[in-house]
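hiii so um. not sure if this is the right channel but i have a protein structure encoded as tokens and i wanna go backwards to a sequence. like what aa goes where. can anyone help
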């Protein structure tokens, strides 16, 4: 049976989409260790469950509530992911999308709030965005259900070839660190994507770090950090990784969206 995780930034329309895609709604209690309600619903169109996760801006948790999402990625088995994205806040939202795509599970993106983006004079070519991101993108209006059936169809069609891992280049120092960490991880019996793990460890994600706990890896990360401090303008690996993603995101947005005349005239 299909297990679909619903992931996105706060206030992007997750609950609206959840209500639209699920018929019966099962209340399962709270996620362990936090007061956040765990919601799992039966998908209407497919034989499967939809799991609503707390809204987060990153897989690097800044609170116990946000840890729910990271722990879910580390410990739960699931089939695929719906990543709901706020079209009017693409730059911020895609920071999470990259980390989700790096995980390597099939992903369909629900591009929500297109009405808000359009009103602000931003037009997004969803097909081009899908091509640049390497994963299906479906424009939706979660509030009234528009496009949500198409999203369900795309979800149903997802398989292991649907989503490509985005090739964000993190610079030679970090990339060399990734290779060394992947080599160390080969000896551990961990059934998680190695490049994703290496990046989360280099970012200093506290949940992933205590999940793996390996002194050899800690030594590699220290070395990477020293090299970055000595040879770049960065003082942390975390910031360098964030900015590498930002550069990639800026290019994707530039290539797949345009400002309308209306927005230009707003400024004159
Ligand atoms: P969540 O916090 O991610 O679960 O998001 P919600 O489903 O609670 O939605 C947050 C707010 O955005 C609510 O006020 C919704 O009515 C609104 N909303 C959801 N989808 C859309 C949309 O496509 N367009 C607009 N303009 N508002 C939306
Ligand atoms: K948001
Ligand atoms: Mg919600």
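sure thing!! here u go:
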């Amino acid at each position: 049976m299909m297990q679909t995780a619903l992931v996105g930034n706060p206030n992007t329309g997750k609950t609206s989409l959840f209500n639209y895609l699920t018929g019966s709604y099962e209340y399962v209690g709270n996620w362990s260790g936090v007061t956040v309600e765990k919601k799992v619903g039966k998908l209407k169109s497919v034989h499967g469950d939809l799991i609503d996760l707390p809204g987060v801006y990153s897989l690097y948790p800044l609170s116990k509530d946000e840890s729910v999402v990271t722990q879910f990625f580390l410990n739960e088995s699931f089939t695929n992911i719906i990543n709901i994205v706020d079209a009017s806040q693409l730059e911020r939202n895609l920071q999470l999308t990259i980390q989700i795509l790096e995980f390597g599970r099939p992903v369909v993106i629900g591009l929500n709030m297109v009405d808000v983006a359009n009103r602000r004079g931003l037009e997004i070519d969803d097909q081009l965005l899908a091509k640049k991101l390497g994963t299906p993108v479906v424009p939706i209006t979660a509030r009234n259900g528009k496009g949500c059936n198409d999203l369900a169809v795309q979800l149903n069609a997802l398989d292991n070839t649907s989503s490509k891992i985005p090739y964000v280049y993190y610079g030679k120092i970090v990339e060399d660190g990734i290779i060394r960490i992947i080599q160390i991880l080969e000896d551990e019996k961990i059934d998680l994507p190695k490049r994703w793990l290496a990046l989360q460890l280099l970012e200093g994600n506290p949940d992933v770090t205590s999940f793996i706990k390996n002194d050899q890896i800690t030594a590699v990360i220290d070395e990477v950090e020293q090299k970055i401090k000595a040879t770049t303008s960065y003082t942390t690996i975390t910031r360098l990784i964030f900015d590498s993603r930002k550069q990639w995101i800026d290019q994707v947005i530039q290539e797949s969206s345009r400002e309308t005349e209306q927005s230009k005239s707003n400024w004159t």
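oh and The chain is about 50% helix and 20% strand.
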